[in-house]
Write a structure and sequence with these properties.
Uridine Diphospho-n-acetylenolpyruvylglucosamine Reductase, domain 3, Uridine Diphospho-n-acetylenolpyruvylglucosamine Reductase, domain 2, 15 helices, alpha+beta, single chain, Vanillyl-alcohol Oxidase, Chain A, domain 3, five-stranded antiparallel beta sheet
Length: 457
């Protein structure tokens, strides 16, 4: 990067907030090092930085907590990492209106802590909430187990401020739950992976904290029995906040990780300790204490009829591990793939996918937000793979299994050599052409995260 441009950037944000050389090591993705990393301290500084580098056509890579930095393909050109960690202020909280406006660099954990003192919360629980920023969660549409009842970021966002690829500051939506009808601009940027604009501020609707919350765990000897229990639960009068189905490896871990439940090979050494089951159903309930108590008892009764055993309550500390899904199963996963399928097909996908990998001598872990059909799978070889072809082959087969049922798959993590053989994103079809046109309108110079997202956007 030219020295005169670096000096200009230092003038805008301050010299300590422009990193070069070895300071860039935390921002290396897929072995590719950016030219510089810059950390603006205000929306106006973000605008000034983008306007300056956009004139030169340099790629801009928005960066929150870095929790999803490896998703997608890295930019083919070196560019500038635009870090938002200094934009971490709570702008406005209206407890009476149940709304909050926050800058994009604040982490989800920080926001929840600030809201808890007023008895409220943002009903989003993405993985690694202490690192995941509000802007990053919106850009990736990240969520966790509680999405079953409370939805994703799309359902909670009511207003957003974005800096465009030309440095313009654009606001959409409002600061109240109900506002003027029209095109819902904020939702355009949710899940766009920073390719349409840089999210710098957001307004959400909140909820009061529930009086009581409980997380129940039920073991099953077979995965298909766990799937049947999910279907029965969905058809019942129960109102769970989370419905998670995990195979034994995802639940209890491989390589000493403790899995998503963090309990090791048995349920905390309970007596009598069951063997590692074929599946574990984890269900969350919240609300009034009496309601929660009744629902937990009803879940025990319902699942017992379907082969469920050893029902018990789990500690609240399990919630964050559940959000990690299958990734919690192994110290290091060789690849991680996410699927979207019909809820009725979750258990079948998990069984078929595990069987396909097992036939090739590969270990897997499977976990699902079963009530909404969101599945994650981690693949582990037990050693550093020497050739990407076997890994790519099983990932391609997994994708075909999902497609056969009308679903889709996204390669969340894999070495670059594997990504070169297996597309990260599914073919979006006609929607891809629409997305490309929107990209061309909002980012005509293709500077925002170029090539990272669907259809080469």
């Amino acid at each position: 990067m030219q020295d005169d441009l670096l000096e200009r950037l230092r003038t805008i944000v301050g010299a300590p907030n422009v990193l070069t050389g070895v300071e860039l090591s935390p921002y290396v993705v897929e072995g590719r090092t950016p030219d510089t990393a810059i950390f603006p301290g205000s929306v106006e500084e973000v605008s000034a930085v983008i306007a300056r580098v956009s004139e030169l056509g340099l790629p801009v890579i928005p960066w929150g907590g870095g929790t999803a930095a490896s998703v997608g393909m890295p930019s083919a050109r070196a560019g500038l990492v635009l870090g938002l960690r200094r934009l971490n202020r709570l702008v406005e909280h209206e407890p009476g209106d149940l709304t909050v406006t926050v800058e994009a660099g604040m982490t989800v954990g920080e926001l929840q802590a600030a809201l808890s003192g007023r008895g409220q919360w943002l009903s989003l629980d993405p993985a690694d909430a202490e690192r995941a920023t509000i802007g990053g969660v919106l850009a990736t549409n990240a969520s966790g187990p509680r999405r079953h009842l409370y939805g994703t970021a799309r359902d909670l966002l009511i207003g957003v401020t974005v800096v465009t690829a030309e440095g313009a500051i654009v606001k959409g939506g409002g600061k109240v739950v109900k506002h003027v009808a029209g095109y819902d601009l904020p939702k355009l940027f949710v899940g766009s992976y920073g390719t349409l604009g840089v999210i710098v501020e957001a307004t959400f609707k909140l909820r009061p904290r529930p009086d009581d919350e409980r997380l129940m765990c039920v073991g099953f000897d077979r995965l298909k029995d766990g799937g049947a229990a999910v279907r029965a639960l969905m058809a019942s009068d129960l109102i769970p906040s989370a419905v998670e189905l995990l195979d034994g490896t995802a639940a209890f871990g491989g390589g000493g990780t403790g899995g998503a439940l963090g309990l090791g090979p048995t349920l905390a050494g309970a007596a009598p300790a069951p063997p590692t089951p074929g599946a574990v159903l984890v269900v969350g309930f919240d609300g009034l204490g009496e309601q929660v108590e009744w629902q937990c008892a009803e879940l025990t009764r319902l699942t017992a009829q379907l082969g469920g055993h050893h029902p018990r309550a789990l500690a609240s500390e399990v919630w964050p591990r559940l959000a990690l899904g299958a990734r919690a199963a192994f110290p290091v996963a060789t690849a991680v793939m996410a699927f979207g399928v019909l809820p009725t097909q979750v258990a079948e996908l998990m069984e078929q996918g595990a069987s396909a990998a097992r036939a090739r001598g590969l270990g897997t872990a499977w976990a699902a937000h079963a009530g909404v059909g969101a599945v994650s799978a981690a693949l582990a070889t037990g050693h550093e793979p020497s050739e990407p072809a076997p890994i790519a082959a099983i990932l391609a087969e997994w994708r075909e299994i999902a497609r056969a049922g009308g679903g889709h798959a996204t390669l969340e993590w894999a070495p670059l050599a594997v990504k070169s053989q297996v597309p990260v994103w599914d073919d979006p079809g006609a929607a891809g052409r629409i997305m490309q046109r929107i990209k061309a309108e909002l980012d005509p110079k293709n500077v925002l995260n170029p090539g990272r997202f669907v259809a080469g956007i």
